[in-house]
Amino acid sequence: MSEWETVIGLEVHCELATKTKLFCGCRNAFGDEPNVNICPTCLGLPGSLPVLNEQAVEFAMRIGAALHCDIRPSVFARKNYFYPDQAKDYQISQYDLPLNAEGWLDLPDGFRVGVTRAHMEEDTGKLTHVGATGRINAALHALVDYNRSGVPLVEIVSEPDMRTSAQARAYAQELRGILVATGASDGRMEEGSMRVDANVSVRPVGSHEFGTRCEIKNLNSMRSLGRAIDYEVSRQIALIESGGVVTQETRHWDEAAGRTEALRSKEEANDYRYFPEPDLVPLAPDVAWRDRVRGSLGPMPADRRVALVTLLGGDPSPAEVDQINAVVELGLDGLVKAASDAGAPASLALVRAANEVAAQSDAGLRLDSGAFAALVTTEAGGKLSATQSKAVLSALLEQGGGDPAAVAKEMGFEAMGADSLAAVVDEVVAANPDEWARFLDGDDKLMGFFTGKVMEATAKKANGKDVAAELRGRRG
Amino acid sequence: MTTTAVALAAAVRSGGRSARDAIDEALAAVAADDDRFHSFLDVMTEEARAQAEAIDAAIAAGRDPGPLAGVPVALKDNLCTRGFATTCGSRILEGWRPPYDATVVEALRRAGAIALGKTNMDEFAMGSSTENSAFGPTRNPRCTEKVPGGSSGGSAAAVAAGFAPLALGSDTGGSIRQPAALCGVVGMKPTYGRVSRYGLVAFASSLDQIGPFATTVEDAAVLYDVIAGPDPMDSTSLPSVAEPARPGLNEGVEGLRIGLCRDLVEGCAADVVARVQEAADALAGAGAKVEEVSVPEFSYGLSAYYLIAPAEASSNLARYDGVRYGLRVDGDDVEAMNTSTRTAGFGAEVKRRIMLGTYALSAGYYDAYYAQAQRVRTLVMGAFDRAYESYDVLLGATAPTTAFDLGAKVDDPMAMYMNDVCTIPSNLSGHPAISVPFGTGQDGLPVGVQVLAPALGEALLFRVARVVEAHAP
Fold first, then answer.
1. Does A40 sit within 8 Å of B334, measured CB to CB?
2. Which of A100, A111, A170, B62 has the fewest CB atoms found within 10 Å of its own CB?
3. B354 and B214 share one domain
4. For residue A242, what are the contacts with CB-CB under 8 A and spacing of at least 6?
């Protein structure tokens, strides 16, 4: 039995965060009531015409520049196919002359993935099948929401350079970070503003020819992406090893069942009859515009990871590397830098950002960095326990900022003064004379018992470290 | 209505005649006589009267309602009119009311013109006789046994019948000029991009252009001046401000170099050729230098056109799928519904061209058909450029014959397509051209002479056309 090598290429569709749609002035917004952001053009009404949104071009060029692509004169084309979510029954896309081509993306571990192209196109509307089961075949009728029709997309096509599902996930995550860093997209997979399709094939190790690939759709999370590729690789290997042949087809990932399923082959037989879109003129950004876009790019995730490593004093631990990756991917590195600039230890800021803030990353992006810095400084100074600090942080995230000291006070987390703590310890000792005697004789197991009693008596306001110090101090 | 648009607008603006009176006369004439011609599919009675009253009120208040104040204009039914049925002569759009006005319809209103109604046309502008309308043919007002030409046959007939001094049509392969010639009126196709296509229901996007019909060259120039100009809603609209055509209209042709294009008269009927020659002689008599010229590349135009136009149409007409508007014929699933709707909603010529175009764009055939046709198009453009190095304008026939009998060519698509042989080159090149009535054929029916000019040569084109008109027998 031979060894198999996996070959993966990804096609990522990302919705651009423009104010308006690609070819009309309708609002580009997620989550509105159905069919409110529509006009003759994005409904494809007879007589309507597309007018290219310059902001979308700018965003697409930013993506191209961030992916080290050659930004080229390009031409829009019509991709013809019938589908009810496609208002004109053709999609305006770019075909043989994409805006961005021949770039690359480096994964955090340094592995370089080629980017074939990153072209502009319009999104479709959204179909909802209404019927007994919600499945297409059993639907009684369908509803179409054209709010999404004409929303600008950039499709980023990678070279088939990835060899493991982990690499594919790392690519998608890094790409998401880049998209967010360019300001071109919010990269939200759960809202469909970033959608990933995976082309997967296998071949014997050592072979230079590609195996037959399958395209997997409906990958709605990074987790789905990894699981679907792993499943598909196993399926293809099992199929080949049992004497079968892989058929080139589009497969649908069923997250609940944990498997990919072939779509009807009829949907595969499309001839899209591409031809240049006669309603638009060629798009040829001049050198000045291209240079301006390249020059205006802020730091990319890779740059920001390096900056965090520097803040930590270099040589991060493996755990810190993971934390850095997570914080940068979520765009929370600004919080860490602010805390560090304010004098808080970068390592503690990183831990809080990578755990508590990351758990609510949307709120984290809105969190006032001054408040975060103050909190980490307070915790580092011992005035709040770790547990208390996390509780205060949670409150700060909820309200988008605030004065950590005031919040701590409201929550009753005022650090207890040494005198009042001593008084509580006196009471606890007096109430438990036998246990105290055994503790004084060196029974360390009772440390926890007395700490618990003190915390109980102070309603957890006491700092655990201070209690331990007081107890040990009395034993001498 | 026997008055010209210019005279009527002057009367209305000076208070000599009310817009309401003018529109009522036009509405009454249509009601009384259009049974014979079927030039209109629908008349905008209420809207037109309301607009006329608004114009009269403006004049009473001392405001200028615009250069076409109170002038009725007939609109081809592929121009979107807000809240008013726009069918393109097709069952598939029956009952659809656009939620917006075409840019040209807005321009007309700003100029004080009044939309009188929507005119009959070959379905989706595919045809040369208006017999492909789903709502029955239009008859030529000069002889009701004859076709008015097409596809803007309703607009040409409405002007020829005197229902309105002006009309708008669209010209993809000759659909303004050929019916103008057959009905004995002036019809003009502007430079591609000079008039906004926003709100013109697309047939072949890279060829379609809106243009005027009128009884005189001056009226056509005035209407052209109203509709020409840049439009941010149309990306293919030319950004420059349009040079007005009317001011230089009477500057004559003294010293102009005019090429009588053999390839635009060859194959035409002898009486048509004779009229073109007489027009050339008249121009020479008026001081132009007229020579014969041959542009053999024009002979490839028809073949290229009948690949490019259907290819674009096959894509443009995909949206009529029963999902969003117009006709829907239910089916068991969405594909069946699409198929049933399109089968029932489109006529034979539209289906023929959709199939042609789909084939021409298909994988494996694209290079041999669509791409090759685009290369021919480039060739035709280059040929025009060379001709215009030696000549200011070109002269030829508009249509190979005078109006033919209703039904004569309906079963022979190739014979019908041949009607466009003289008009197609200007669509392929995107250049302006005009048809001017010039006498009649042996059958006593009108003949049109065509003047062609280079891109943005409209002012020159109208100037030459004015001289042709002045010498018409």
1. no
2. B62
3. no
4. none
Retrieve residue B112's tokens: 């004080």
Same domain for B133 and B165?
yes
Q: What is the ipTM of this complex?
A: 0.96
Question: Other CB atoms closer than 10 Å to residue B284's CB: what's the count?
Answer: 15
Size of interface A-B (CB pairs under 8 A): 98
Range of the domain at B211: 5-227
What is the tens place of the pLDDT at every residue in B388-416?
A: 999 999 999 999 999 999 999 999 988 88
What confidence tens digit (pLDDT) does each residue in B224-237 have?
A: 999 999 999 999 99
Which of A47, A89, A279 is the closest to B80 by Cβ? Answer: A47
Can you tell me the distance from the alpha carbon of A324 to that of A347, in angstroms, rounded to the nearest whole number? 10
Q: What is the pTM of this model?
A: 0.89
- Looking at every residue in chain B, the average pLDDT score rounds to 97
Q: How many CB atoms lie within 10 A of CB A306?
A: 13
Please tell me whether residues B96 and B218 are part of one structural domain: yes
Contact A368, A395 (CB under 8 A): no
Distance from CA of A217 to the nearest CA of B (A): 22
Residue of B nearest to A80 (CA): B315
Residue B243 resides in a domain: no
How does pLDDT run across B320-371, given as a tens digit for each residue? 999 999 999 999 889 999 999 999 999 999 999 999 999 999 988 999 999 9
Do B73 and B23 meet the contact criterion of CB atoms below 8 Å apart? no
HSE (side-chain half, CA atoms, 13 Å) at B359: 8
Provide, as residue numbers in chain A, all residues whose Cβ is less than 8 Å from the Cβ of B341.
none
Domain with residue B106: its CATH number is 3.90.1300.10
Bridging pattern class, strands A194-204 and A100-106: unpaired
Q: How far apart are CA B341 and CA B335, in angstroms?
A: 10
Active site residue B152: no
Which parts of chain A have pLDDT scores under 50? Answer: 266-267
Mean pLDDT of the B416-423 span: 93
Q: Residue B352 contacts by C-beta under 8 Å, 6 or more apart in sequence? A: B413
**What is residue A362's predicted lDDT score, i.e. its pLDDT?**
79
β-pair type (A214-219, A249-254)? parallel
Residues A210 and A160: beta-carbon distance below 8 Å: yes
For residue B316, tell me if it sits in a domain. yes
- The distance from CA B286 to its chain's CA centroid, rounded to whole angstroms, is 28
